[in-house]
Write a structure and sequence with these properties.
- The structure holds two protein chains of two kinds.
- Chain A has helices at residues 2-16, 18-38, 50-61, 67-79, 83-88, 93-121, 129-153, 157-174, 185-190, 196-208, 212-240.
- In chain A, helix 2 packs antiparallel against helix 3 (50-61), helix 4 packs parallel to helix 7 (129-153) and helix 7 (129-153) runs parallel beside helix 11.
- Chain A is built from eleven helices and no strands.
- Chain A has one domain.
- By secondary structure, chain A is mainly alpha-helical.
- Chain B has helices spanning 2-13, 15-29, 42-68, 70-74, 81-110, 117-139, 145-162, 174-180, 184-197, 201-224.
- Chain B is mainly alpha-helical.
- Chain B starts with a helix and ends with a helix.
- Chain B is globular.
- The longest helix of chain B is centred in the middle third of the chain and has 30 residues, at 81-110.
- Chain B has one domain (2-224).
- Classes of the chains: A mainly alpha, B mainly alpha.
- The A-B interface holds A 19, 22-23, 26-27, 30-31, 34-35, 37-42, 158, 162, 178-180, 182 and B 16, 31-32, 34, 42, 46, 146-147, 150-151, 153-154, 157-158, 161-162, 166-167, 171-173, 176.
Chain lengths: 242, 228
């Protein structure tokens, strides 16, 4: 119960971090606005608009970086500034860490939902709300867990930060958003079922084509990755925090 | 040239920096060729974005000096601010030029179709001058190093999209294409277009002069505020 009373302050401190707001909210809003100007009139022969896909993949890809919120917070509370203080107060540390993780994930999802709202109402991109939020939730949890694993497994926080950037940028690169990847088995796999970003996109696209089986299949792969990595995170976390 | 030497040592002392400064041009060499756009292989396109990151990373050393009071202490030493700044910038420029040489001539060795490698090298050097100057001007706006870096990162994303490095300018609506001219990345893309299709040397010179103008203007802005 004591943990619950900390949640609102955790939330407030996260909201106050304006660098995160700049990078994960203002920049994507500006970027998707620019893309909506550039791709406004473009249509393929089948009448599809590439803009919709581009905006969706951008909204989802910014979830890859959401984990850095949790990571920097955990670092601040457990390993540097508040480390000694935390040893004195009568709370269960692992529960506190879990509450921070939940707060960060919810915050990241919230930013994603704001982006979705903006793209739906300002730019007219149709979203399948329930499913997209489910997929974005999975992505946010996955990214938090991955970043926490980095923070817990690596001694130097700078290295952990770099690794989290590699995770985000790497999967965007592997998805072939900047340039096409070479055509072989490894890159094919990493550009489809081995890539959380592409799994999320495949799932959202499948539900739009009302292909529920495929949508569940891809989302369940994500869920499986979340569960597996969560166990790994628990093992690492007990060693460093517990 | 004492400052010059120590700037060099300082830039390469940090392992992350070392990896950052040497590995990326090497990776860029091996990126594939786009069809039909961009005109040069993707690595040569993205290197323009990357140079902006390198310049802010290097320029942030000057910011650290300003914030930690080193510049204040130097102001009573027998060293003028102009020579402090110029030696820093010269060292940074040399580091960046080295990367450009690796990228361009590595590409030639690897067999990338670079049409006119020497002119491409000159274009990159002009561009990196502009990039360094912009980074220098940017850090004078901020007190906080982190904020300056992340702010610049968002700026880079926007500039590279708006300047036609990620998406070709020919796809832009007309009013956006006019705005694109304002960004240095547009001139890099323009210069690369000239290297593939152009034939009049005057046009290429014009692109370079525009980049030098950027460098001059931002250098003046960046060098004015030295103390806080």
């Amino acid at each position: 119960m004591r943990i619950l009373s900390t949640v609102q302050f955790t939330g407030l401190r996260m909201l106050r971090n304006y660098i995160v707001l700049l990078l994960l909210l203002v920049v994507p809003i500006l970027l998707i606005t620019v893309f909506s100007f550039i791709l406004a009139g473009v249509e393929t022969e089948t009448g599809e608009k590439p803009l919709h896909g581009v905006v969706k993949i951008m909204v989802v890809s910014f979830q890859l970086f959401g984990g850095s919120i949790v990571m920097s917070y955990i670092q601040h509370e457990f390993f540097t500034a508040h480390r000694m203080r935390l040893n004195m107060i009568p709370i269960r540390k692992e529960l506190y860490a879990f509450s921070i993780m939940m707060c960060g994930t919810v915050y990241s999802i919230l930013l994603g939902v704001i982006l979705m709202l903006y793209s739906q109402f300002a730019l007219g991109i149709p979203w399948n709300w329930a499913w997209s939020i489910y997929v974005i939730t999975l992505m946010a949890i996955l990214s938090s867990i991955v970043c926490l694993i980095f923070a817990l497994a690596v001694r130097s926080f700078k290295l952990a930060e770099r690794l989290s950037e590699v995770y985000g940028v790497g999967f965007i690169l592997l998805a072939g958003l900047f340039f096409p990847m070479p055509d072989n088995a490894f890159f094919d796999f990493m550009g489809s079922y081995g890539n959380p970003l592409m799994l999320a996109m495949l799932s959202i696209q499948a539900i739009e084509q009302s292909n529920a089986g495929e949508a569940w299949f891809t989302a369940n792969i994500l869920l499986g990755a979340v569960v597996l990595l969560f166990v790994l995170m628990l093992v690492l976390g007990r060693r460093r925090i517990g | 040239m004492t400052v010059f030497r120590f700037v060099f040592l300082r830039s390469f002392r940090n392992t992350t920096n070392l990896i950052f400064l040497t590995l990326f041009p090497l990776v860029c060499i091996f990126m594939p060729q786009g069809d039909p756009w961009p005109v040069l292989p993707y690595g040569y396109q993205l290197f323009g974005v990357f140079l902006l990151f390198v310049s802010i990373r290097l320029a942030s050393y000057i910011q650290v000096d300003r914030m930690s009071g080193v510049v204040k202490r130097l102001s009573i030493a027998p060293l003028s601010h102009a020579s402090y700044l110029s030696q820093h910038l010269l060292a940074y420029l040399l580091i960046i030029m080295l990367q450009c040489v690796i990228l361009v001539y590595g590409g030639v060795l690897y067999g990338q179709p670079l049409i006119q490698p020497f002119l491409l090298l000159i274009l990159y050097i002009s561009y990196s001058l502009a990039a360094l100057a912009i980074a220098l001007a940017w850090i004078t706006l901020f007190r906080n190093k982190e904020l300056a870096f992340f702010g610049f990162m968002s700026f880079v994303f926007l500039v590279s999209v708006l300047g036609g490095i990620i998406v070709p300018v020919s796809m832009f609506p007309e009013w956006l294409a006019r705005i694109a001219v304002l960004f240095p990345t547009y001139w890099l893309a323009e210069g690369q277009l000239w290297i593939v299709y152009g034939n009049e040397l005057g046009d290429f010179l014009f692109v370079n002069v525009v980049l030098w103008l950027y460098a001059l203007v931002f250098m003046i802005i960046g060098s004015t505020r030295k103390l806080r």
